[in-house]
Design a protein that fits this description.
It is built from 10 helices and no strands. It is mainly alpha-helical. It has one domain (2-208). Helix 2 (22-33) packs parallel to helix 4 (58-91).
């Protein structure tokens, strides 16, 4: 079932790029960055393969992909900024998120947000969703734009270049990048567990006081 779904998604991506050219690259990367897990590990290597055939230019396809990432990231950012924070303020206590922790998130993104967004754009899985928490934390739009665009350009260029070099074997790239999915998931789970543990400890300490 999963294999069929992946094949269908890959066919959709290939069809869109084949039909729309650079516009298809832009569209597919925009959808991914709007928190829809449409794999860039298919979009950009296939685009790189088309560079090898002479249809695309390498730098041009990387720019198209990066601009698509930025456009989709704006959608996720504004979703977080306009609705996500109010939702968390109203219902966050049910998942152990206190108002002062939202303020802490604001301070975190004020100090580290630019670097966090840039780094996340170079990681599988995480890059798809980073714009939403940046919006919730109200990260300033200018550094968000700069770091999203810079990180996305590097990601798109590397994948497209690899696809260009691999030629017709560009599909081999996807499984290689997703070797890191397990490690990323474990790190995310460990981080969530640590936050939950600290939150429970603070609630218990407040109850004893």
């Amino acid at each position: 079932m999963i294999d069929k779904l992946i094949s269908a998604v890959s066919a959709l991506i290939i069809g869109a790029i084949s039909a729309l050219g650079y516009g298809g690259v832009f569209l597919m990367m925009a959808i991914e960055s709007a928190c829809v897990p449409l794999p860039s590990e298919v979009t950009m290597p296939f685009s790189g393969y088309l560079v090898a055939t002479g249809r695309f230019g390498l730098n041009a396809v990387a720019i198209a992909g990066a601009l698509g990432c930025l456009a989709g990231s704006y959608v996720a950012y504004w979703a977080g900024a306009k609705g996500g924070r109010r939702f968390l303020e109203r219902y966050g206590r049910w998942v152990l998120i206190a108002p002062h922790e939202l303020e802490s998130a604001d301070r975190f993104f004020e100090r580290w947000g630019s670097h966090a967004v840039f780094t996340a754009r170079l990681l599988p899985v995480v890059r798809t969703f980073i714009a939403f928490p940046a919006g919730v934390a109200r990260m300033r739009l200018l550094p968000f734009t700069i770091y999203t665009l810079a990180g996305s350009y590097i990601w798109c260029l590397v994948l497209a270049y690899a696809g260009m070099k691999l030629g017709q074997h560009w599909t081999a790239l996807g499984p290689w990048f997703h070797r890191f999915d397990g490690a990323i998931a474990i790190a995310a789970a460990a981080g969530a567990a640590a936050l939950l543990y600290n939150r429970i400890k603070s609630v218990a300490a407040a109850a004893r006081a």
